[in-house]
Every structure is written in structure tokens, then in C-alpha cells.
Amino acid sequence: MKNNKINFPFLRFSLIPLMISGFFITSYAQERNTVWIRGVSINSNGWEEVKSEMILRGYDFNDLMNTSFDPSLGVVAAADQVEGMIGNEGDVLGIAHDYGGIVLRDLQLQDPSITAMILDGVPNQGSSGILGAIQNDGPNSLSRAQKLVQAVNLIREGDDCNNCGFIEAFESWIDEMEGAEDFLNDVQQGSPIIENLNSPANLPSVPFAILWGSVDELSLTSLMSSRAFPSDSDYFTECFTETLYRERQEAKDATVIATINNTQGFFGNLLSAAASIIPAAAADPTQVTGIIASIGSLLSDSRDRITNQIQAIKQENAELARILRCELSNQLLAAEWQLLLMSNSALEEVEVEVQIFGDDYDECITQCGVDMAWGDWDMDLTCEEFCADEVEIGTEIITVFVADPNDGLLTRSEQQLDGAAAEPFHLIETNHFQETSRLKDVVNDAFVDLFEGGAGAAFIVPK
Amino acid sequence: MDFSNYYQKFWPAAFLLAIMTCALACSKDDAKPFPPLSQVSGDCPINMSYEVTTAAFTQAADQDEQTELTPAEQVLAYPTFTRCSVDVCIEVNGTMSASVQMLALENEPNYPKGTIGLPVIPDKYMVDRVEINGGTATHYNSQGEVIETQILGDASSIDFYSKIIEDMVDFVPLNAEQMSWVIEGFKEAGFDMTPINDDLEMLTQPFADGSYSKVVLDKKLRVIRGQADYDPSGKLLTKSSMTFTGEAENPIVTGHKFVAYLTSPYSQKRMAMTRRSRIENFSLTKNQ
After folding, report:
1. Is there a contact between B59 and B70 (Cβ–Cβ < 8 Å)?
2. Under 8 Å between Cβ of A325 and B273
3. Which of 53-112 (B) contact A at CB < 8 A?
């Protein structure tokens, strides 16, 4: 007993440091509480891939989300639902994509257990794309984005455009967003929820990190591939370009025929045939009528062939026009969608020098005359006036519009939020649906950096 | 945006063979040597080769209406350029072999990343070279990977090529007076002929469905200059034209222009989709 008493102070003093160090060891060694809040399924492929990848890399976390939240409740009620899942747990790292990020931000304001947030591809400033997809634009109860698709379908109508179903996929996406208007309107640009969360009093009070995606050149086929086939390669782009090349090749073959025919075949052949019945010697004026009649007879006999030749070129032109219309419809849809995304973001104007090539004066006059003969001249200029400024080769400065970098749904500025714990992580060449993909190294790298404490201890997830 | 000055200058010129292949291809940093094809040689009955630079853009058909287009329609007017080398051989049996190689483009516009309105094809799917051999067209990307293989050689094409070869006849000169007799002969045969100027004559060909085409014949060079196609109401649907230099014995193609029209469902304005090309080093050889 004595010894015990004697030893007690020793034990007490020796155990305290051990207990203290044990506490810290325990706190770092224990799994980190997390909530992985996905975006709405319309706009997000969910977190399973990245979670699996991080587990594979040895990170030890406990996802408190035992089930997905119900976005149809709206942001505020969905935040309450997630809060219920967290229960009495503490020191929770919230990780969210898309709509889920707004839910997380709302949750953080009411639940002190959220100690840090990773906001990945989140419409922190509200989304113009979502606004354009869901808000009725005029009396016909269609949204602006739905009208874009409708217009593109009008161009494609009757043209049998084989786009491998990607326009339909885009249309379906827009329609699904429109159908989810009741809750997606919480994250549209200018929504009361967004305005409230961005008021100075309601900005995040815990460390947070921003991950934002962008693609240098937005391809709707790639965007839709990432949505429809998240684990696959770029199906729509691959299929679409193969179709495009196939159709172009066929048109090209037809053009080879036409070019050679125009240059050396059809007309030259007719003239040579006609020449063969014209006397070599200068014709007596009295013979001319007979010569013309003979040529006329020859050409009359060739009527079917001449007609068929012209009709064949006409059909080739029509096919080429069909291909161009199909291509244009896709190009126009992409341009309209990009401009819709830019409704509330910066659109930079940049001057670009482009090469121009025209004709020399004589050729210009000839072409002008042909266009006039075809009834395709709408300028208030004579050919001479028009061709006076013609240059064979030159340059011209044009002004182009450059989009704010975006991920196909959200622009850079829409994904930003001032006050982040570190410089925003830029997910380069990552579209909106790839922001939760383990196939994107840049996504995995960002999470590893955060979990290792690169943006501060608040984000650490132990191994 | 005001593109009117640019497009007024951009007006006539232009060709189509490689335009369709070239149009989606990226321009290259370095021109690559043209791959030798055993089938493409001077022994072909018809051997055609050239280099083509093509501009593609879409704008209001009436240039005064360009600013009345929607912003997205207006940005389609940014021209995109491609340049490639083409070598075509038509065999005696009517089959075609060809090689199309993308070339570096001089003075390529330096569009910033994110420029709205440009067609977007990922590099992996950009055509760098096309080879047509034995009835198969193979598209390669810049890494030499096959993007697309396509079986060609439909019977009608082969028949068409064969007929072209049959049509190749020795050049017989015609003086201006004799040419005028030929034009009168066309009229005598019931064709609708309209003079455009001293060198050009227009043939209007109606079709059973009420549509019609207007074909421009060059009496001096003895070539077809172009063709415009109209629907039964007289609305112009497409037009294609070629420019030439040289003499009648050996006309040299220097350009091609193709325009197709559509009415935009956005602005309801009539728009012109244009592909215009400048042809260099054109050679068409008959070895018969």
C-alpha cells in the first residue's frame, strides 16, 4: 500500500503526459467523421467513386450519410435531414458537390459539428445555367434552354441527322432540370437561398476549400458522355465524330466526281462532240443553220444525260447542305448554351487577326456577275464598286467572345466563394459531371492534398 | 459585332474535295511529308492533286441583317481554317485511291481558349490524315491512331468514275463563232440558255418536281463554273462555284465556294453556311 501511495504521484505525473499524447494520437488515428453530400442526380454522379479511391489510398473516414438526402425537400429541409444523420457526432468534415454544397453551407450555419467544408463544383453564387433550364421564358411554358433544343430540332427536322443520340441526351437533361424546378430553383442565379447564404453574416464560419472545374473548349458531346457514361470514355464524341467523318467522306467522293466532271468531263465532252460535227473549214453562212440544227440534234439526244448530270450535282449539293445543317445545329446549340451560361458571368471580347482571301479584280467581277445571274445579290453595290476593294490575300481584325472558364454547367465565378482556406483548387479539363470522378487525376490529387493538410489541419483525414 | 466589312471582302473565291475532310481537322505545327501511296502515281488514268486552304463560316445571307441575328448565331461567323494536301488517283476499273494530309496553316487565327462559336472536336478525334485504298477510307489522328475506317466503293461511284474515264476525249478547239453555234444548238435542243457576259452562259434546267437548277458554262475555258439549285418556289437552296486560271486546253482550278442556306429558327433570319477554298498547285493529269 505504502509503495502504492508512494508510487501514486509518480504514476500520476507519468500518466498525464501519456494520456495527453494518447488523446492526440487517438484523435489523429481515429477515423474522421465526414458527410459526403452528393448533388442532385440530374447534375451529379455522386461520390462513390472518389470515396472508393480515397479508401483505396488508405484514408480513414466515417461517412455519416447513411442514406442520400432528399433534394425535393429543398435546401433548408435537406440540410435538416443531413443534420439528423450527423446526430451527436462532432468534428465533421463536410464534402459536397453541386446542389449538395448549398445544402452543406446551409447546414453549417446551424450545426457546429461541421468543422470544415470541401465545396466541389458548387453553385456558390447561383447558377445561370440552371436558371435558364428551369425558368419559363415566355407564354409557352418552355424554359430558355428548352427553346434552344426545340430550335435545334427544327433545324434537324427532316435531315435525318445522326448525332448518336447526344442531342436527345442533352434535351433529356434540360427537361429533367425543368422538371425539378421546385427545388433546383434554390440554387438558380439570384435565388433567395443563395442571396441569404452570401450575405456577410451567413458566409461560412468554418474553414472551407473550393474545388472548381472547367474545360478549355466546351464539348456538349463530352459533357453528355460524362453524364450518361461516367465510367466510360467519351462515347458520344467518339460516335458523333465517326459518323461525321463517314458522311463527309461520302460527300467528298461525290465532290471528286463533280470536280473532275466540271473541269474535264461533262461539258468538255459535249463541246468536243459538237466540234466533231462542225466542218473544219470556215462554214458558209448558209450552212450555219444546218450546223446549229445538227448540234441541236446531238444535244437533244444527250438531253437525258445532261439532265441527269445536273440533277446528280443538285443531289450532291443537297446532301452536303444536309450534312452542314446537321453540323451547324450542334455548333449552334453549343454556342447558345455557352452564352446562356454566361448570363451573369464575364464575357471577354478579344480582337483576333484572321486571314482573308478573295480574288483578283477580274475574277471578282466574273463571280459577281454569276451571283447576280443566280439572283443572289442583295448588296446595294455594282460589281465594279464591290470588287474595287477586293483583296486576293489579306488580314482583318475581328472581335470574338471568350467565355468565362466553365464546367459546362457552372462558370468559374459561380463556383467561387471568398474567404476560402486556400487558393481554390482548379480542376483543369474537368466538366461538371467529372468533378466527382476517380478517373480524373486532378480530382484525386486535390482530395489527397486536402486530406494531407495542404489547406490546413481542418481538412485532415488520417490514414 | 460587325462582320460586314470582313465578309464583303471575303466574298468570291474558292473547292470541295478536301474541304469536307479538312474542315474538322486541326492545323498542324509542322507540315508532314506526304505519305507515298502505291496507288497514287503518274500511271493513273486520272491523277489529280492540289493543296487547299478552306475557310468555313456561317453568317446572315443578307449581310445587312448580320447584327439582327441572335448573339449565338453571330458568333458562328468566326471563320475556321484548314489546309491540306490532296492526291487522287482514279484507276482504269473505276476505283479511286487518295491521300489527304493536313498541313500547317500559315497565319492561323489565334482564337483564345473558350472562344464561343467555334466547332469543338477533341484532339484525339481530329483527323490528321485520310487514306483511301481498296475501297476503304481510313482516318488517322495526329498520333497515327485510326479514328474511323469506312468501306467505300459503292457500285454507283465506280460506275461514275468509269464513265468519267470514258468521257476523256482529246481537246478540240472551238473559236468564238463556233462556240456561239453550240450555244444556239443548246437552244435548238430546247434548253433554256441565258447569256451572262461574253464568256459565260447560263443553262436553266427544270425538274419534274418543279425545282430547277441554273448551271453556268464558261465558253472560254470550256468548264462548268458553277450551279445554283432552287426549290419549286424559286428559293435558292445551294450554290457552288469554281474559279479557274489557264487556257481551255488546261484549265487550272484556283478556288471553290459552296453555300447552303437555311432559315434560323432562333432569329428567323436566312443564314448562309459557307465553305470557300483557295486551291494551289492544282494538277489534273490524264494518262490515256
Report:
1. no
2. yes
3. 53, 55, 58, 61-64, 70-73, 75-76, 78-79, 81, 88, 90, 96, 98, 106-112
Helix or strand holding residue B72 (H, E) = helix B71-75
- pLDDT, chain A, mean: 86
Burial class of B267 by CB neighbour count within 10 A (0 to 12, 13 to 18, 19+): middle
Angle ∠(A148,A154,A160) on CA atoms, nearest 5? 120
Adjacent-strand bridge partners of B271: B60, B262
Task: Report the C-alpha gap between B228 and A374 in whole angstroms.
Answer: 7
Q: What is the pTM of this model?
A: 0.84
* Ranges A100-114, A282-296, B59-73, B264-278, most confident: A100-114
The verdict on a CB contact (< 8 Å) between A299 and B191 is yes
Retrieve residue A243's grid coordinates: 459518323
Nearest CA in chain B to A250: B152
* C-alpha to C-alpha distance for A83 and B207, rounded to whole angstroms: 74
For A275-306, how does the pLDDT look when each residue is reduced to its tens digit (9 = 90+)? Answer: 888 876 666 777 888 889 999 998 898 888 88
Residue B241, beta-bridge partner list: B226, B257
B61, B270 contact by CB (below 8 A):
yes
B positions 185-204 inside 8 Å of A (CB): 185-191, 194, 196-197, 199-200, 202-203
From A347's Cα to the closest Cα of chain B, the distance in A is 10
pLDDT digits (tens, 9 = 90+) for A44-101: 999 999 999 999 999 999 999 988 889 999 999 999 999 999 999 999 999 999 999 9
DSSP H/E element including A6: helix A2-29
Choice between A379 and B180, residue whose per-residue pLDDT is larger: B180
